[in-house]
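Components:
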Amino acid sequence: MYVELKGINKRFQDVPASREVSFGLRQGVLAALLGPSGSGKTTILRMIAGLEHPDSGDILIDGLRINEVEPSRRGIGFVFQNYALFRHMNVYDNIAFGLSVKKERPEAIRDKVGGLLELIGLAGLERRFPAQLSGGQKQRVAFARALAPDPRLLLLDEPFAAIDAKVRRELRSWLREMISRLGITSIFVTHDQDEAIEVADEILVTNLGRVEQKGSPLSLYKAPATPFVAKFIGESTLIDDVGALNGFEAAPPGATGAVRPEFIKIFTLSESVQYEGSAEDAVVERLAFRGDSLEVWLKCKGMTLPARYSLEKRPLAVGEPVKALIYRLYAFEDDRVRLFNNSRLGDHPLGYSYSI
Amino acid sequence: MNSGKYAMNAETSKWIPRILILISFLFILLMLVTPLTVIMTEAFRAGLKSYWRAVSDPYALKALQLTLLAATTAVVLNTAFGLTAAWAITRFSFKGKGLITTLIDIPFAVSPIIAGLIFILTFGRLSWLHPFLSAHDLKVVFAAPGIVIVTLFVTFPFVAREIIPVLEARGTDEEQAAALMGAGLFAIFRRITFPHIRWALLYSVILCAARAIGEFGAVSVVSGHLRGKTNTLPLHVEILYNEYQFNAAFAVSSLLAFAAIGILTARNIVEFTAKKEEEGHVR
Amino acid sequence: MSPHAKKNIIPGFGLSLGLTISFISLVVLIPMLTLVFQSSALGWSGFWKTVLDPRILASFRVSFLCSFIAALINGVFGLILAWVLARYRFPGRRLIDGLIELPFALPTAVAGISLTALYSDKGWIGEPLARLGLKVAYTPVGIIVALTFITLPFVVRTVQPVLEQLDHVYEEAGRMLGASPTLIFFRVILPEIKPALLTGFALAFARALGEYGSVVFIAGNMPFKTEIAPLMIMIKLEQFNYGEATAVALVMLGASFVIMFIINSIQARSAGFV
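Structure:
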């Protein structure tokens, strides 16, 4: 493992920010620390950078413990949330700052900064000041500034938070491409699951100071390890008593669980003969057009379950009774998650696929 | 604030703050605390009895009266002016706003001595008003009205300058909403605007009062130094000092120093309460 | 003057603007115009004869030099104080913070006699200094002491809020890029607070130039040595020589307005960075 955290604990006054955080990342990987605000993701990033100190535990880069190493000697590039570009320095001086404090030769600095300006596509804007740049341009300058001293690890704190939604998508793929071209190991912090899923090779889901699960975006979606991950990744609705649903009698009695909209198929009363015993009686409570499908809220056994409905089929009406077939769901047992398939379907896979 | 927790170069990170804090303490001790201490020790050096004699002297009481009159007038009129000016400047857009703002600031840019000079020229012997004033036996310069006017001038910007940025920052949405619902000028001011500015207003009134009580240069020019008639407390201090009545001068000074401490305390309480309240609103 | 562009439904425009203009006219505009009008009576030759008088010139020199040094002293110590108050938490911090405005609250004449007592040959500080051969009271050094006292709050109170609001990420960014604490201060923090520091310095300088009450007691008022320009106005006035007093006042006013203009352009320029 190239970057490794072992048993990290950190408290701010009485508030635990990191609890027994341990994980490792291979060289060259682009990882996302994903979690709601206050889940401790930024603290982990700042501890790796050396801007905070863990109360206990070890941080290793390339096999060496760096807990006591000065932040500037760790070989880390850091992109701050609001970029923290020096306002009184122009683009060139901002990017050159890390090199000039290391007393590099002026020609070497010039070449390096010139190369970086080419890389980020801002050549010609080097005399501009941060106030004269757009959000996306500032982002790129902050990126180049962090890269200038040739770091072995790049850390980005909410890199897209300060950019408006339109530019954000564009910048995500730009950053993704830059990082894979440079091959630099990178970790970024985000609270936006779409962002993490789209950009990262690996996602670390944080909650209440813990890392709940680490894995590829797809594996987190398919096999959430904890109730929190099941709820946080993808869309899901909580169910009070899984065992009460048709076809899930095998679930532990009284267990709570979650179901995703794509796990539910809706049949009108005229077509639902085949799965009679395995489906639930439901009533359409509310409808919303989602561009490529209808989102349908079903009233079913006292719960409201969102599901999708194809636009190709006969339109539904609010108040219409339908059959809802739940293929599978997650049941929660203590802190673990078990996947259950509808037992009455037997070996009739219905041929749905995850739409990722 | 986590800035203090840097694992900076351990030695420097420990010593630099200590040295800087020490320098601050010494500088404040030397520049502010010792002068204040000297006033108190000198005031009571000759004993309580002579202290009492100095501060209960009829001339001192007369000076106190004039000081209070000038300060009260300045505070009342400048508050009225500050509120109306802030209302006009922040609630409406009109041509010449920049000029008005500059004119309000002028008394801050003018030396107190020059302020005094200006009013001597305006109301004195050479003035175009002089024939009118002397015909009606109105004495402005070298008399109490002059002192009041010049005090008004030197404290003129205090309230306006404090209120304008506060109202500017708040925007006009709330007032517009109130006006749409049919509220009149005074209802809007009293119920919408005033709650936002009351701390800033109190703060500026305190500063205005402090300056009005303590003004020396400007009143010194227009007073003509008629003892018992046109002396304020600071002028009375000067006269006592120049007559080598040092103990009496310091005794009267100590009254002003007590007032200054009271003003500072009030200022800090207002600032603290306002900050607390603001934090409360945010939450 | 009427409201233009957007429609405004807030009441009280005519009333508040009318009152404001009347107030300003009575208190500021008419008196200032009187000054301008009266000064024209003096004429160019009279003006130059007055302000080029050696004694007056000497007073300008004393005023500008002492004010500059006092503002400089407060530039250094004001910056330290602002830094300490904004960045460190220590016992006594609130006391120092609360005392900073003392020079604004204490009447200048009181400050003047107190500093004179303190720095005279028999004073607590003056005596030991005199034994070392440094006379403070009744010399330009005394003037500098008084002006430093009077203008102490300016730099602290302009720099402190800027430091308090300055985001720590700039320092962290500097650290991540390998800059030492000293380098971070000079290359990252100082440029950020430079406009505020210059503004505070200019305000202190302007206030010191016009200051009278605290200086006259400690200065000793010796012609050519420790007479300040405001005192020259006072002396001319006591001789009822209004013309010459006005001439000196015009020079001082000119200086004040130049400083005010500089402050405004500093602030306009620094606003462009944000």
